[in-house]
Amino acid sequence: MPKQIFINLAVTNLKQSTDFYTALGFANNPHFSDDSGNCMVWSDSIFLMLLTHEKFAGFTSKPIADTKSSIAGLFSLSLDSVDEVNKLMDSGLKAGGIEPNEMRDYGFMQQRTIEDFDGHTWEVFYMDITKFPAQQ
After folding, report:
1. CB of 27 within 8 A of CB of 40?
2. What is the pTM of this model?
């Protein structure tokens, strides 16, 4: 079995969050979804589990962070071009996401940030490694 990553996020409104991540380009896997959580597929090895607070709480003894006022983690998605970054961002903003700052251009990488309804923060970027500065 190939190695995979599953990112689990506590969400306040499962349908709204599912619609948002669908707009970003994630696909729902109904085999691993129910009324308390949806499995959203980014690629063959990257999955996002959107879980109600009740479901999420069953996996931890710690309180669930208020990610609207505190950051619990930064998640990043790489795309194949700046145009793809901009299209994903446009779709996410139309679906209700928030862009907390302007695009950052590092020369070899262009990056934009989007937050979902619960404040989970995603860095969406395109990187051209051929433009990475040579080490001195």
Report:
1. yes
2. 0.90
